[in-house]
Amino acid sequence: MTESVSAQSVWAQSLSAQFEETFGRAPAGVWEAPGRANFIGEHTDYNDGFVLPFALPYRTSVAAAPRTDRRVVAHSPAAGEPQQFALDGLAPGDVTGWASYVAGTLWALQRAGLEVPGMDLLVSSDVPIGAGLSSSAALECAVGLAALDLGGLDRSGGELGISGLDLARLAQTAENEFVGMPCGLMDQAAAMCSKEGHFLLFDTASQDLEHIPVDLAADEFELLIIDTRAPH
């Protein structure tokens, strides 16, 4: 359900090189979040039910570096020209299109009282877009991870830290309130809390989660993700 560390390392090195070509300096790091598929409970996510998603080997990667001003420059070569916006005074409706997921995540972090620096971002993804595999949640979570680390914030999940589920909630807020897309918490929780070799049993009412070990190959099963070309 996830790629090897070496494959991820090659991907990160390639994105770092692209970042340097684009922005003229090396990134501070590369952050990633996966797409997801859902085994059981497709429509219970937003009805306070149980869901059983799992992470896919497809992911969204973000190379980023802090800026000295309060602006964000976000570039995805697949989406055209770079998008720019200011962090100060950022509000829903200020940014549209794919960059609204970036802006919305940073807006949600700021609204939660977290310090978000200006930054340059380069985005690359192999999560199929519009195919129901949570490409938007992967983007939100990868951007959120980058912003937390660039801002020097604690991701340990301790008393004062931000846990993976905390970030998932903020990413959901971004999608609901900034982008204007109603969704439950499953997609973001799967992106942030999934574990290799496991399905994620998630109670969307209590927000309790449990990792369920799965070895499909041992039981001679093969998991297929099929693009039906039907609109999502």
Automatic annotation (TrEMBL):
Protein keywords: ATP-binding, Kinase, Nucleotide-binding, Transferase
Record-annotated Galactokinase N-terminal domain positions: 18-66
PROSITE patterns (alphabetical): GHMP_KINASES_ATP
Cellular component GO terms held in the UniProt record: cytosol
Residues covered by the GHMP kinase N-terminal domain: 101-194
GO molecular function annotation: ATP binding; galactokinase activity
GO biological process: galactose metabolic process
Pfam families per UniProt: GalKase_gal_bdg (PF10509), GHMP_kinases_N (PF00288)
InterPro entries named in the record: Galactokinase, GalKase_N, GHMP_kinase_N_dom, GHMP_knse_ATP-bd_CS, Ribosomal_Su5_D2-typ_SF, Ribsml_uS5_D2-typ_fold_subgr
Family of the protein in this entry: Belongs to the GHMP kinase family. GalK subfamily.
Record protein name field: Galactokinase
Organism: Candidatus Nesterenkonia stercoripullorum
Organismal lineage: Bacteria, Bacillati, Actinomycetota, Actinomycetes, Micrococcales
